[in-house]
Amino acid sequence: MSDHQYCNFCRHLIDAATAFPDSLAVAVQKKRFNKLTYQEIDFSTLNKRSDRIAHALNQFGLKSGDKAVLMVKPSVDFFALTFALFKAGIVPILIDPGMGIKNLKQCIAEVHPDAFIGIPKAHIARRLFGWGKDAIKYNITVGGASFWGGTSLTQIIDHCSAQTPYPMVKLTPDQMAAILFTSGSTGSPKGVVYTHRMFEAQITVLRNDYGITHGERDLATFPLFSLFGPALGMASIIPAMDASKPITANPDYIFAAINKYHCTNLFANPALIELLGRAGKSRAMKLQSLQRVISAGAPATLSSIERFTTLLNPGVEILTSYGATEALPVSKIGSVALLKTTDITDAGGGICVGYPVDGMTVSIINITEKTITTWQDDLRLPAYEIGEIVVQGPQVSQCYYQRKNATLAAKIEDIKRPHHRMGDLGYLDSDGQLWMCGRKAHRVDANHLKIKKSYYSIPCERIFNTHPAIKRSALVAVKIDGKTTPLLCIELYNKSAQTAETLFAELHKIADKHNQTVGITLFLIHKKFPMDIRHNAKIYREKLAIWAEKQLID
After folding, report:
1. The AMP-dependent synthetase/ligase domain covers which part of the protein (predicted)?
2. CB-facing half-sphere around the CA of 107: CA atoms within 13 A
């Protein structure tokens, strides 16, 4: 096989180190004694450090094809380690720490890792909860003492004599490059197998569809996305924040990093868009250097997007990206176009997530829980018909790791490459734009009326959210006399001056005005919705449904 048929994600770092060795690659913000400090590394030094680590990992016993759990906070070591793993053909396993102890143990057991590379706190948890005890052969501690087991990374590097550039392992495009576990919005976490082809496709999209170029500086708040910075010749600026809990971030730290490095790009999830927008507006700030803002992870509210745009220069947009770990990005839409769809969204038309990015095919199929083994073009539904969103493209994953049933449920085989069932509902309009209508698992197929009717979470909730007293709402299903009945849980901005009876009567009138909501007559006020801590936009409707059932019984 010739060299051009091989690939490896880390080749982009090597190219950047050759083309602009002295340019900033990574800067990490830290708070010490009430003062912000910054650790910096250029492309040449980052490349050489990752070479040294790759040599050291091999000398320590790790080899191409091995799998290594990586639990290291965003830092210079995180970047050097990750690129070293790619160079050596060792598969990094990245697990969202926000998924909980039980799920973490399950994920690690599933992948049967050869190595565990983590900060001391991660090793303490590994020992206490027995993560990977029957599989892990190599334990490496990063950024602290190795008291809790494992050899320190510093010690491994010091014992390595190799000083030469590391001969990057050449891999085929469809070889496994990484395994990514995210907490997910429904079901147990699954390991998404990333190939080098997927990473290459994502880099191409970021260059072409998002227009990211060398010399830019990105304020990166999500570890995986931050890796694309050096691969694109763009500096990744890492703020002092807990990436698994963005809503706890200090806006002043983020603003300080943006201003210090004149960041041109900001990647932020909806929770941060809301947090930074409110903080920036209260300070009458202008983020003069930003040329684009990318929001992903969950749908941001139109009000938070509108608020954040006041911090930006005229013409600078917030680009909302739709996708999932299995397929990212699928589509995008700029804030100017998105804000023009407000009336449609408020009337129950779903949320517009824009046109598919280059190379991505989006289709809508009938809603079904059945497995679909083979793709047929006649599965596609016509424009404006709501169904399950299905995508195909080079950045779409082909399988889950060691989860055959989950792969069969989510993938539809085709001649070119598999289609992925997103688990989301939506429709395509006559122009080919995609509109989101919520998770498939969150729809309510009701039979409480004379005719069966399906209610979709986003259209229904956005209609009711137009009421000025409502902060957010959540559609759930309850059983009444054996019949599936829609019920709306409500969280208020504050204690309403009007009675619950008056509020519910007003909501009943709103429901009767729209085909999407007619038949919804049950409402309950909840003090504070259970939300995911990362996005602060994903409501745990399953918990609310159990709560609602109990309220009706009581």
Report:
1. 16-401
2. 29
Over residues 399-423, the pLDDT tens digits come to: 999 999 999 999 999 998 999 999 9
What pTM did the predictor assign? 0.94
Q: Are 350 and 435 in contact (CB under 8 A)?
A: yes
Q: Which residues pair with 301 in a beta bridge?
A: none
Per the listing, tokens 């779409």 go with: 396
Distance CA 411, CA 397 (A): 9
Task: List the domain boundaries for the chain.
Answer: 1-6+38-171, 443-553
Q: Which helix (H) or strand (E) holds 51?
A: helix 43-60
Contact 172, 10 (CB under 8 A): no
Q: List, for residues 199-227, the tens digit of each pLDDT value.
A: 999 999 999 999 999 899 999 998 888 89
Residue 194 bridge partners (DSSP): 178
DSSP H/E element including 105: helix 101-111
CATH number corresponding to 443-553: 3.30.300.30
What is the distance between the alpha carbons of residues 109 and 129, in angstroms, rounded to a whole number? 12
Bond before 113 cis per omega within 30 degrees = no
Two domains, one topology: 1-6+38-171 and 443-553 = no
Structure-block tokens of residue 285:
């700030």
Q: How many CA atoms lie within 13 A of 523 on its CB side?
A: 27
What is the rounded distance in angstroms from the CA atom of residue 293 to the CA atom of residue 318?
A: 5
- Residue with structure tokens 């792969």? 407
- Tens of pLDDT, residue by residue over 443-482, are 999 999 888 999 999 999 999 999 999 999 999 999 999 9
Torsion angle (degrees, nearest 10) of CA 548, 552, 553, 554: 100
**282 Rama sector, left if φ>0, alpha if ψ -120 to 50, beta otherwise:** alpha
Q: How many CB atoms lie within 10 A of CB 55?
A: 23
Burial 370-408 (b: 16+ CB within 10 A, else e): eebeebeeebbbeeeebbbbbbbbbbbbbbbbebeebbe
Residue 13's closest CA among 40, 45, 38?
Answer: 45
User: What does the alpha-carbon distance between residue 426 and residue 435 come to, in Å, rounded to a whole number?
Assistant: 5
Q: How many residues are present in the chain?
A: 554
CATH of domain 1-6+38-171: 3.40.50.980
